[in-house]
Amino acid sequence: MMKEKIRIASGQGFWGDMLDAPVRQVEGGQIDYLMLDYLAEVTMSIMQKQRARDSSAGYARDFIPLMKQILPACVERNIRVTANAGGVNVEGCAEAVRGVARELGLGGKFRIGIVTGDDIMARIDDFLARGIELRNMDTDEPLSTVREHIQSANVYLGAWPMVEALNGGAQIVITGRATDTGLTLAPIIHEFGWNETDWDKLSAGTIAGHIIECGAQSSGGNCQYDWRNIPDLANVGFPIAEAYADGSFFITKHEGTGGRVSVPGIKEQLLYEMGDPHEYITPDCVADFTTIQLEDAGTDRVRVFGIGGHPATEFLKVSISYSAGFKAVGTLVYSWPDAYEKAQAADKILRARLERLGLRFDQILTEFVGANATHGLLAGEPSPDLAEVQLRVGVRGDDRQAVERFTKEIAPLILTGPPGVTGFAGGRPKVEEIVAYWPALIPKTEITPRVDVSEA
C-alpha cells in the first residue's frame, strides 16, 4: 500500500558538517529517510589520494562512527539511509558498515545496497582513443591537454540506481559520486512508483533534493534574510522534506530546534549554484525553477508546488580533478594608524623583492582583508581610519621551489617593511598542491551503473 507522504531528513550538507546533526534528525521526531551528502568536487581527489596510500581508505570515514550511533534506531524504526559516503571505495565503506552491524549484534537484520560505476579513471584512455574527448565545459579544451595530471574522474549518477537498491530492500544505500538531489529523489520515486518519464514529478523531487541538500542552509543557516532574528542557531534544526505522490512537498524541521524555515530562506537556497533557471539539468530530468510556487504553511513550514520539468538529456556530467601546480598564501596584519596604506606599501615591497629574486609565478594575488577583499572595487576607497587591515598574498605556479621561496619572504617584512605589524598568522605559509576542476559531458550510453544489495 502506497504511503500518503514520506519525510526525508537532511543530515549532512558536506563532509565536515555538524557531526550530531544526523543523530538529532533520527532522534528528534518521525522520519522515514535520512539523506547524507558528503561529496564535493575536490573531495573525490582527496579520497583518491587516501586510497592510493591505503587500499582500505577512500570513503567518508565520519560515516562509520555515525552509523554506529544511529543504526540501532534506524533498524528498529525502519529509517532508511541514502548516502554518497562511498567516495571512491564504495565496497570498502559498505564493508565497514557491516563491521559496525556485527559489532552491534545487527548482522543479518537489514540489507545494504551499493551503487558503483561512477569511477571512470581506468577508462579515460579508452574514451580518448575512441574520440570521446571529454572537453572542458567552460573552456572547450580536450581532456588530453591535462591527461598526465588527472587525479580522479567520476560521473554524476542520478537517482535510478539508488531506486533499484531501495526496490531490492536495501535499508542503507551507499553510493560514490551521485547527484546531491538524487539522494532525496530516489526515496520519493521508490515510495510513490513514479516512472522515468514523469518529468514534472521528477523535477519536483529534484527540487526537494536541491532545497535540503545543503543541510541547515535552508533552515536558517547562512541566511541573509532577517538573519539577526533567526532563533537559536546553536541548536539549528536541519530541514526535512515532507513529500507527496502528486509532486508537492513541504519543507519543515523538527519541533523544538533552532533556526527557521521560511519562504525567503527557501528562495535563497533555490538560488544556490543556479545557472539558467529554466534548465536545471540533472541525469534524471531538466527542472524548471521558474515554475516553483512557494507558500507559507505555518511556523517553520513552507509548501512547494506547481513544479514543471522537461525530459532528461542524453549526457551525464563528469567531475574530473587534476594537479595544476602549487600555491602558498601568507598573511600579515597592519594596525592603525594608516593600516591600509601600510598594507599596500608592504605588498609593493614584497613584489619588488620577488622580482629581484627572479621568481616567476602564474599569478600573484593580493587581498586587503578589512578594506576591500570581499567586495573588491565595489567597496569603494577604504577609510583611512581603519583599525586594522590584513595583507593576504597568494602565489601559484608550476615551480614548487619558487613557491617555496615565496613562503620565506613574508616574515622578513615584519622588521624590514612598514611599521605596525601584528598577527603573523600560523607562521610560515605552507606550499600546497593545487587541485583543479575539469567538468565534462559523456553520453549516457557509455556508463553502466552497478547495483548490489546484500545482507549486512
Descriptive report:
It is a single chain. The radius of gyration is 25 Å and the shape is globular. Helix 1 (21-27) packs parallel to helix 3. The chain contains 12 helices and 19 strands. The strands form 3 sheets. A 10-stranded mixed beta sheet has the order 11-12-8-7-1-2-3-6-4-19, with helices on both faces. It folds into 2 domains: 5-118 and 156-313, no CATH class; 321-436, TT1725-like (Alpha-Beta Plaits, 2-Layer Sandwich), CATH 3.30.70.1120. The chain is an alpha+beta fold. The model has no long low-confidence stretch (mean pLDDT 95). The protein is 28% helix and 25% strand. A hairpin with a 4-residue loop joins strand 7 and strand 8 (249-252).
Distinctive features:
456 residues; alpha+beta; Alpha-Beta Plaits; 2 domains; 10-stranded mixed beta sheet; 12 helices; 25% strand
Give a topology summary:
Layout: E1 5-12, H1 21-27, E2 33-36, H2 41-53, H3 63-77, E3 80-83, H4 90-103, E4 111-116, H5 124-129, E5 150-155, H6 160-167, E6 172-175, H7 182-192, H8 199-212, E7 240-244, E8 249-252, H9 263-270, E9 280-281, E10 286-288, E11 293-296, E12 302-305, E13 308-310, E14 315-335, H10 339-356, E15 363-369, E16 388-397, H11 400-407, H12 413-416, E17 421-422, E18 432-443, E19 450-455
Parallel strand pairs: 1-2, 2-3, 3-6, 4-6
Antiparallel strand pairs: 1-7, 4-19, 5-14, 7-8, 8-12, 9-10, 10-13, 11-12, 14-16, 14-17, 14-18, 15-16
Helix pairs in contact: 1-3, 3-4, 6-7, 7-8
